[in-house]
Amino acid sequence: MRIVAPSLLAADPMNMERDVKMLENAGAKWFHVDVMDGTFVPNFSFGYSTVSALRKITDKVLDVHLMIDRPLRYVEQFCKAGADYLAIHIESDTEENTIKALDKIAELGVKPGLVIKPKTPAEAIFPYLEKCALVLVMTVEPGFGGQSFMADMMDKVKTLRAKLDEVNPTCHLEVDGGVDAKTSIICKENGANVFVAGSACLRAEDKKAFISAIEE
Ligand code: DX5
Ligand code: ZN
């Protein structure tokens, strides 16, 4: 099943509820929520108060992407705030703490995810794939919306699709960054099934058509 997860980073912060409802009406089943700490990435965005506020206004899937240093310190708060999927970066802590964070997320009844930055090889997350419900391949350097899609990440998507088919076939394979009607096609061809779309989705005149074309 293919899913478009509109990124709320591209929504109007003063009209978040309006944009969530508008995207629900356009058929959005997931919402991607970017959390940035100004340290792991050079930008700030939402925190757990936003996740819990969103939880109150939507029953759609909240796909929370933590771009924060040493996320083990905060995963419990994000789980309790109402995340459905909670994804941490492989680059953000030690091997031991990454395992602890993934286990803790699962213990709290939330689906754990692991994210890799463009310079990190696919193989770096092989040891953790069985613990994941979602794997996210960044197709831009994390930190900002509206950047250009990196097509050279497609080999990584392909490698991870093949490995997941072997060890964890129900795990979602997500792409994030510069995904639009055109770039989503090669993501599909290489085996991605969840498509984060920020600026392209929020800017699309016909959001329903944008979502359904990618999910086709
Ligand atoms: C970037 C974020 C993305 C961002 C994508 O660090 O992880 O989720 O919102 O935005 P677009 O789709 O505009 O590249
Ligand atoms: Zn993201």
> Which distinct ligands sit in these coordinates?
D-xylitol-5-phosphate, zinc ion
Mean pLDDT: 98
Distance, first to last CA: 9 Å
Q: Helicity level, as a percent range?
A: 25-40%
What are the segments in which pLDDT stays under 50 over at least 5 consecutive residues?
none
Q: Give the helices and strands as they follow along the chain.
A: EHEHEHEHEEHEHEHH
Q: Roughly how many Å is the radius of gyration?
A: 16 Å
Instruction: Assign the structural class, choosing from mainly alpha, mainly beta, alpha/beta, alpha+beta, or little secondary structure.
Output: alpha/beta
Largest sheet at a glance?
8 strands, parallel
- Morphology: globular
DSSP strand (E) fraction? 15-25%
Spatial order of the strands forming the largest sheet = 1-8-7-6-5-4-3-2
Work out the helix count: 8
How would you portray this structure in words?
With 216 residues, this protein is of the alpha/beta class. It has helices at 16-25, 48-57, 75-81, 95-107, 154-167, 183-189, 199-203, 207-215, and strands spanning 3-6, 30-36, 61-67, 85-89, 111-116, 134-138, 172-176, 194-197. It has an eight-stranded parallel beta sheet. Bound molecules: D-xylitol-5-phosphate (DX5) and zinc ion. Zinc ion is lined by residues 7, 32, 34, 65, 176, 196.
